[in-house]
Amino acid sequence: MIKRSFFALSKPGLTCDLLEPDPEAPQKIDVPALLTLLLPEPLDGSRDALIQKGDTVKKGQKLQLYEDSIDYAVSPVSGAIKSIDTFTADDFRGLRTRIAIEKDTQAADGIEYPEMKQEVSFAAGHMNHLPGAPPFGRLARTEVPVNTLIIMVSDTDLLSTTSQYMGTTHAATLQKGVQILKQITKVPKIYLVLPDMLQDRVRFDGLTLLPVDLEYPEALPAMIMKNHLDKILPAGTTPEEMGICFIQAEAVVSLARAFETNAPVFEKCITLIDKTGARHRVEAVIGTPLGQIFSQLGIQINEMDRIVIGGPMQGFATFTLHHPVTPDMDTILVQDRQFITPLSDNNCVNCGKCIQVCPADIPVNLLVRFLQAGQYEAAADKCDLEACIDCGLCAYVCTSHIALSQYIRLGKHELQKLRADV
Amino acid sequence: MNNTKLTVSHAPFWHDGDSLFQMNLNIILALLPAAVYGIIQFGAPALGVMALSTSCAMLWELVVNRVSKQSFTIGDLDAAVIGLLFGMMLPAVTPWWLIVVGTFVAVVIGKSIFGGIGANPFHPALVGMAVLMLSWKMFFDFDTAYVNYIFDFPALTPLAAVKSQGAGVADLFSLSDMIWGRELGGAGTTFGLGLIIGGIYLILRGYIRWELSISFIVGILVTAALFYLSSPDNYAGPLFHLFSGYTLLGAFFLITENSSSPVNRIPMLIYGFLGGFMIILMRNVGAYADGTVLAILLVNLANPLVDNIRPKALGRGINNA
Q1: A254 lies in the same domain as A271
Q2: How far is B55 from chain A (nearest CA, A)?
């Protein structure tokens, strides 16, 4: 954990990690006997789902709950569905469905996968699950066409080097992926974001590079748009609503690999930071429970430790070791219980540190007062709740240890509900 | 492995390690040079006043916590800071009952009834001081308070002397005397150098906002210089004002109080300047010898208003293309 420096007249100066000069290949995690896939859609009790407990599935088979479902998963192994149920997911994600698949070790490694087509609708229908979670669903929608595609070879959060690793060690594959992307999406502008210190280490021909500083939060989408594209993200909207789509380097690499082999890709590259702060790079099949990764790496997880999925600033803590590897899981951070800083219910003391660090110039000290009082609409109207880009810096520096990010997340969530009711 | 209970909380999962305790501890540390000098200068009574004031303030906080059935908050040392500041501003010979009453006003009326730490619109120690100064004026005449002391420097309070005898008296007090604390004043406010060192320490550590201190000092100097230039016979010079009375304590410890001061840069500059301006106005035009207490309370009022000047948030008022 990076502590406050003794002299703290300036900003905290958190910098993202740079990829080491000779990155080692990731350690492969064995495919477990039981895998779990997550779907953002809950089970509907009044309808019969297309997939049921006991069904056999083949590797590469597309699994969706109903005929009209948009979301789907692709089975990484052949086997049988052991269970299927709906649960409340972490971090305001609402109800989700998890499908547990028991691997059949006897099954032939037959892959059920349709013929590759260089069409965006095909990609949206069959390749959303690829490691790196490519946003094909958004690219396929045409109401607001995507006019700018930004490939992220930078990692957005601290500690992670997954995108940098995938983007630099697989630069050639990445470029093939970019060609495929160009053909299937027809997006006119494609940029590649990478840390400025990596510029000399890798070459990308024919791509416009946007070098970003390693200082946090320069690589967040809203900051890239502001600093490099001269576009200010309107408060309360997403880049995608403006026709700007961000795509992870790993997604582009996976896309190229899938087209190359005419088979789906399931191996997700993950940066794992253990309790001592040491970095491991692992490659696990999507659906692998985290517990399997920890036991293979010899990381002991004790009661009350914290497992963070995503980086220390924007990730979320999971409640179970059974949480599976998902397509968008770049980072896992394990924290020992004794290093977990407690939050408090103190009032804001108006020390002004949050104001100093906020990249979106939000009056956080006033905002938190509205949020604590539950006045979410006033918070949005008067204190720019929706301008927040979720970088987490305010809560990182808060002298009072207020759970500022949590208040803001809750505020945005409640605001959405309020607006939906109107 | 199956049933390991994990800690779950919201991002971010790191913290810079700072806390209210750390912040207040550092403020107390920064006050110590001036406080210790006061004890050397005025002897045991000064120690008694500051110790009683600090402990009383903490006790009042404890009582309020107990009565309002809330968790104990004296651990954050905020009451200790209020108490110490309050004690340092009092004359070293203040009777005990005055301190007990004053800290009650400061902690209970100045802070707790507004909702505790962070909710007070005025500096609590100044609320206590203002009430005492208006109610028991005779105890705040430093010249009579220290009548039993023998000093090797002019035993006059610089600001009161200038007020009653005219600006010519200002020459009695050399600048180096005032910086080195060779003047009459509160139990811990005479040692200018100590206060400056403490203030710079806090600025460098990021516990007070430099914009407030610097603009406050600029406000004092500019306003006093204007008065002095308009009529050097009637008004003392800017440096005299800067190093006399509570000015330096005000610049680094009073105007910078978190809860009652703005947080945006331009408002901080305006607010600090306004504070300095008001003090000189009170000293040169008003009835009080040292207007620091009332002037800062007055600008505390302006805080919510000036703090409305703030940068536009990212993406505010932009319509989606």
Answers
A1: no
A2: 22
